[in-house]
Amino acid sequence: MNKKFDKNFWYVFGTSVGIIVVAVLIVMMIVDLSTTKGLTGQVIKNKDSIKLGLITPLTGDAASFGQAELDATNIAIDEINSKGGVNGRLLQLIPEDGRCNGRDATSAAQKLINIDKVRIILGGACSGETLAIAPISEPSKIILFAAFSSSPKISDAGEYIFRNSPTDNDWAPIMAETLTKQGYKKVAVVTENTDYAMGVRDIFKVKFKELGGTIVADEVYSQGSKDFRTQILKVKDGNPDVIFVNPQDDVSGALLAKQLRELGVNTPFYSAFFLSSPKAIELAGSAVEGATYLDVRDLSTNAGKALIEEYKREKGTPVSEFIIGANYDRVYIIKGALEKCSEDTTCIKNYLYTIKNYEGVIGTYGFKSNGDMDTVFLSMKRIVNGTSIVLE
Amino acid sequence: MILAQLIANSIIIGSIYALVAAGFALVYSTNKFMHFAHGVMVAFSGYMLFLMFSILGVNFYISCFITLILAGLLGWISYRVVYEPLQKRKSSNVILLIASLGLLILLENTLMIFFGPDIKTINYFGIAKGIDILGAIVTPIQIAIIIITLVLLVGLYFFMNKSKIGRNMRAVADNKELTSITGINYRSIADLSFIIGSVLAGIAGILIAIEQNLTPAMGTGLIIKGFTGAVIGSIMSVPGSIIGSYILGFAENFGVWFLPSEYKDAIAFILLFIFLLFKPNGLFGVDKGVRNK
Amino acid sequence: MIEAYLIHLLILVGIYSVLAVSLNLALGNTGLMNMGHIAFFGIGAYTSVIFTKDLGVPFFAAFLIAGLLTSVFGFILVYATRKLRGDYLALATLGFSFVIYSLMLNWSSVTRGPLGIPGISKPCFFGLCIANNLQYLIFVLIISAISIAIMYIIVNSSFGKLLAATRDDDIGLRALGKNTFMLKSKALMISAFFAGIAGSLFAHYITYIDPSSFMLSEVILIFTIVIVGGIASIKGSIVSTFLIILIPELLRFLNIPSSVLGPARQIIYALILLVIVLWRPKGLFGKIDLE
Questions:
Q1: Would C233 disulfide with which of B198, B219, C148, C285, CB 3.0-4.6 Å?
Q2: Which residues of A touch B137 (CB under 8 A)?
Q3: Whole-angstrom distance between the N-terminal and C-terminal Cα of chain C?
């Protein structure tokens, strides 16, 4: 057996080494090709272009968000490039699929940082992606700029990490305060079992109880489920004054709203963000009539209007106007930084921290010392006759 | 009032599971392997309806009809291309199971390339106000789903028991070797089981598309619930699997009434696991050496 | 800098090769159709993280605890499914991985549910911590070389021959008075142990875990690795891990629209799997046909 073992062992060892060598050669060859002939990502028009990485889920359950991120980012980059780029250099976006999980996001980040040599990564989208990329990007002083991740854990993930989306800590308490101010005492919460929505739920519950309210029903449904009737029945049984509908995305929120009304629950309901999606209103129709929700500044005014119209023309109805706006802003914020600092990320980092009143599509904001947005503009909106109106 | 609604909820979701489970069990009982890609037949049909009705603007009922034909065709092709060569080589049913998983992923991602990852809806009937039946509120579409499922249940029962083809299929299900001696052509029976099973998936796809919405990955979720229902009833019997699906619907909805609602899927998975361990032939199956194959 | 990317990929290959070889020990060498292997991987990952992060146990202890606890789950699974064969066994073990997945998702007080656990520390030994990926690669290579060598010795020992015999002729072996259940439980416990330590390596490398890393699609990924490599072939599993982990990475370098890229990667996995099953059931290096 020993002899056979020996023979086989060296065979295994030899094959493995051989494969490593071949794999290295292939990868190097492709890298070589990509830098000289432009195989990577989009066609390189200008050899001296500035590369931006984007990590977002392009497949899997969250792919529709990722596609929206990619589309909105591309719109902004195309605009900038058609006007001559940044300091005469074109922007080149290299999108990578993070699949909304840590493993794929880290692979994507390693590739962007080490092969494409990007200094700026836009992303991740899911908090799980961002949290997994942070330990890789931070030591290399790579700027990591998320426009969609909301986990409070990201706030202290690193110095080079920024985001222009509200964290769960920012708005979940506001929701609790709003409901209390309206005089609601008994709330039913219906939450999707995902990182973002569950994070919101935990913060909301604590705050609402602190303000003297009671949670009469606290229901959760799993991602991708399309039947909420028994959860709704439990909501009904709790006899709440108000329902807080807390989904991950527009479609499950709309389906939930639809089934709530179908089952004859006429309790007013409050929500956040998802109702700004035209798709939600289209899908839920009369079911969301009268629903009130927290949202970012109305994008259909000012600069946002042209953007949303362009998006609709080129890419179709956006999954969320907020994502489009935040992604669009993100590229322009980075553009400002690049104009000032070129690709010196320490300079970019310091510059980003000095931004205080950036006039973006989603509002006027800057960054706090932990890289989060310093102002969160949330406005209350209500669906009246199938369109949303701003309440305050 | 609450009880009535709980029962209604269970029946509605049970019907959806049953539509998926029936086709799955039909294929299993005739061919003796797990056709997981059955789930993607449901998704495929939904998307075909979307393509025909919402994109090409074909009349709704004609779209449905074409969808069913396409579903049957896809089922038949997948049998001939993937499963039949494996059966000829006398591969074990584990290999066929793995092949079906490969097929599932293949077709699911093909749908994603063609239709994109975002959710599609077919708003043919709009949003209907629920109707109050004995204290439970049910929408017309849901009533239609329940009725269609029950009609199919009865229809399949008579087809399997009374018609000649159905009896041949049951004979094959019982003993493949013996039936080949009596001159029943196994190949055409297998073809037929895939076509009928996939048309059932097509009906499920159409109804789910109207009641809920479409995502490329929906097939996986549906087949997991569908085969759980089938295992509870009996994977060997179409009526058994339909009843099993209703039991699953009841277990989920009544279970969630008492437990935190996070556990809805866990209830299904635990039931699946327990049934496979202690009663792998389901409530309505006969013990016939399935365990020690 | 290309080295850094390759180091990252090689770390993944190292971790997944332990996972694949350990699955092959159950699937190929013993004939246990275990679709719950990904659950073992997840149990190992969560155990190791919870022990180091919440209970303050040193890494190496947590690493071994992860393996041992997973091994206990291996015994539970093999005991529970002792009467099942063939596709029923496959389904029950698949059901097991669903149950474990729901547990990770819903037992929030311990696992933080869908929020996942961020900020997992890199391994430390007696105050010396792994500082960069090159060191982690060396660490992973040492662990995977030891693990694979142990599994290699096991399958080539007389015990391994008995395992192969249970796969080929269970009843015959029982007629000879061997306790095949004991053989199978030992095999699955060993297999689970190595899946558990692979999980621990994975968690401390990625530094963030959530239940989505242990879902159905991952079951299919490791199954594909083993089947492509070949049943009962350690060499095959290692080679195949390289292929299956690296091929989709190569796709990143092609000029494909990103909306197609993701699904294309999955389609490639599925096609490889179907091609192997249909036309080369031995896999690349398999000794026996898939049957």
A1: C285
A2: 262-264
A3: 45
**b/e sequence B148-165, b meaning 16+ C-beta within 10 Å:** bbeebbeebeebbeeeee
Tell me: the pLDDT tens digits for A199-243? 889 899 999 999 999 999 999 988 878 888 888 988 988 899 999
- A277 and A317 share one domain: no
d(CA A192, CA A196): 9
Structure token pair of residue B188: 């055409």
Domain containing residue A196:
169-295
The answer to whether C120 and A199 are in contact (CB under 8 A) is no
What single letter denotes the amino acid at residue B153? L
Cβ distance C105 to B286 under 8 Å?
Answer: no
Does residue A7 sit in the same domain as residue A86? no
Are the beta carbons of A5 and C263 separated by less than 8 Å? no
ipTM at complex level: 0.85
Per residue in A266-319, pLDDT tens?
888 888 877 777 777 877 878 888 888 888 766 766 667 888 888 888 887 777
What's the half-sphere exposure (Cβ side, CA atoms, 13 Å) at B257?
17
pLDDT of C176 over the 80 cut:
no
Evaluate whether residue A378 is within a structural domain: no
The structure tokens listed for A32 are: 């070589």
In C, residues 80-119, which contact A (CB 8 Å cutoff)? 105-106, 108, 113-116, 118-119
Inter-chain touch B102–C273, beta carbons under 8 Å: yes
**Rounded CA separation C254/B135 (Å):** 59
**Could you give the angle at the alpha carbon of A363 between the alpha carbons of A358 and A369, nearest 5°?**
55
Residue at A28 is within a domain: yes
**A64/B119 Cβ within 8 A:** yes
Subunit contact A230:B9, Cβ cutoff 8 A = yes
**Where is the domain boundary, A295, A313, A340?**
A295
**What's the structural domain count of chain A?**
3
d(CA B144, CA A126): 39
Q: Give the max Cα distance, chain B.
A: 57
Helices (H), chain B: 2-31, 38-49, 60-78, 84-88, 93-115, 140-162, 164-174, 176-181, 186-211, 218-233, 238-258, 264-278
Which of these, C204, C67, C57, lies nearest to C130 by C-alpha position? C204
B290 contacts on C by Cβ (under 8 Å): 88
Model confidence, pTM: 0.82
Q: Is residue A384 part of a domain?
A: no
Does A148 lie in the same domain as A99?
yes
Contact list in C for residue A100 (CB cut-off 8 A) is 212
Examine the domain organization and report whether A69 and A162 are in the same domain: yes
Chain C neighbors of B80, CB-CB under 8 A: none
Chains in contact with B, counting 3 or more C-beta pairs less than 8 Å apart as contact: A, C
DSSP states along A13-39: HHHHHHHHHHHHHHHHHHHHHHHHH--
Answer whether A233 sits within 8 Å of B257, measured CB to CB.
Answer: yes
Q: How many Å lie between the alpha carbon of B151 and the closest alpha carbon of chain C? A: 30
Per-residue pLDDT tens digits for A93-116: 988 888 887 778 888 888 888 888
Average per-residue pLDDT in chain C? Answer: 84
How many whole angstroms separate alpha carbon A307 and alpha carbon A324? 8
Strand, coil or helix: A213 = coil
Distance from the Cα of B118 to chain A's closest Cα (Å) equals 5
Q: Which residues of A touch C251 (CB under 8 A)?
A: none
Q: Are residues A291 and A175 part of one domain?
A: yes
Separation between Cα atoms, residue C177 and residue C171, nearest integer Å: 10
Statement to judge: residues A286 and A341 lie in one domain: no
Please indicate, yes or no, whether residues A100 and A6 belong to a single structural domain of this protein.
no
CA neighbor of C208 nearest in space, from A149, A223, A137, A106: A106
C288 touches chain B (CB under 8 A): no
Q: Does residue A370 lie in a domain region?
A: no
